[in-house]
Amino acid sequence: MDVELIAVGTELLDLGRSDTNSEWLTERLLRVGARVTARTAVGDDVPRIAGQIRTALARADLVIVSGGLGPTGDDRTREAVASALGAPLERDPAMAGALEARFRVHGRRFSDHQRSQADRPRGARWLANPVGIAPGFVVDGPGVALVVLPGVPAELRAIFDLEVAPLVPRRTPRARRVLKIAGRTESWVDERIRDLYAEPGTTVTILARPEGIEVSLQVHGADAGDATSRLDALDARIAQRVGVDLFGRDGDTLAAVTGELLRRAGLTLGTAESCTGGMMAGAVTDVPGSSAWFRGGVVAYSDELKVELAGVSRATLAEHGAVSAAVAVELAHGARVRCGAAVGVGITGVAGPAGGTPAKPVGLVHVAVDREGSLSERELRLGGDREAIRRRTVTSALDVVRRALLEPR
User: Fold this and answer.
1) Alpha-carbon dihedral angle through residues 183, 185, 186, 188, given to the nearest 10 degrees
2) What is the CATH number of the domain that holds 322?
3) CA pair distance 284, 341, nearest whole angstrom
4) What confidence score (pLDDT) does residue 276 get?
5) Boundary of a domain, candidates 223, 249, 275
6) Rounded to the nearest 5°, which phi and psi values hold at 281?
7) pTM strictly above 0.85
8) Which of 67, 192, 284, 290 could form a disulfide with 8 if both were Cys (CB 3.0 to 4.6 A apart)?
C-alpha cells in the first residue's frame, strides 16, 4: 500500500518548525507494512490544500491529511477536503450535540465556531477522538481512502492507533533495522554494499546523519521468523564489509556505545575541551548512568586556562600554537590525570566563523585520546558553520575514543 501524507499549517513552513506528526505517522505506517511515498507540508490556504489532496489521491492508495480541524479562522482543512472531493460540507447534528455535551462537562462555553467541528464532507464517516475534541474523518473512494486527522500530536496518535491502523492491509511480514557507521562517507558505504540493493525482498537506504551514516534495512519474508532470519544474515554481511566502522544499531548513539565499552572495561573518562566548549561532556552526560564511567571535564578556552586547568605547557603553546596536535595531546593527558580518569580526551580547533589562517583554517580540529599513556590523535578538516563544526567534532572525538577502546592492549 502506497501512502501519502499532507501536513496542513502555515507554521510548518517557518524555519525551525518540524513536522513531527508526519515523522511519527511514517514510522507507524512502516510498522504495519505500508510504504510512505510522499510527504508534503502546505499552508492554511484552501485552494492549495485541495490541490495537494487531488494530486495525492490520483497516485496513492491512502492519503492522510493532518491539521486544520480546529474551530479558528485559519482551520480550513474541512473546506479544502470538500473542495478537493467536489462534495458539500454537511453538519452532523449528532456530532454537534456530542461536542456540546463534552464542553458542558468541562464547564466550557460552546460557541458557533466550536460547532463547526461537527462539519464533514458528504459521504465521510467519523473517526473517534478518545483524547480530544475535534474528531477525524475518513472518505472511502474507489481504490483509495482519504483520512483526515487533527494536528494535535496526542490526538492524531490516538486516532491513528485506534481507528486508522486497522484500515491498513498488512503486507508480507517484514523486519527492519538501522545500522550506524562512523567515520565514513555515504559514497564509501555505498561502494561496499551496492550489490546488496538487488537482493529480492530487500530495501536498503543510505542516509547521512550528524553521528555518521545510517543504513536502513527492510526485509520481507514468508513469515516473521523468516524475515528476521534474512535480516540477520544481511546485517552480518554488511558488518563484515564495514568492520569496526559499524558502531551500533537502531537506537544506539556513539556516546552510549562508547560509555558501554568503558563500563565493560572498568575504565573512566575525563575531557578537556577548547573549541567545543563542553559539548562533549554534555553529550556524554546525556547518557543515563554515565556517572558510572564519566569522571568530569574541563572547558579550557583561553591559553591561560589550558595551562592552569589542563596542564598544557607554555612552551608547547608557544612552539605549536593552541590549535595543534601537540596541545591536543597535552589536553588529553591533563584530562586523564587531573580528572583522575583512565582515559582522557583533548579537543582544540578553529570553529569559526573568524579566527582561521591559511595555515590553520576554520574547520581545522585536533582530537587526542590518552589511555594511560597510550595515545591516539586525529586531525580533522571539517566543513559547515560554527555549530556544524562543533557538533561534528564531538562525534569524531567520541569515535576516536571508541576505536581506541577496541584496540588490543
Assistant:
1) -100
2) 3.90.950.20
3) 14
4) 98
5) 249
6) -60, -40
7) no
8) 67
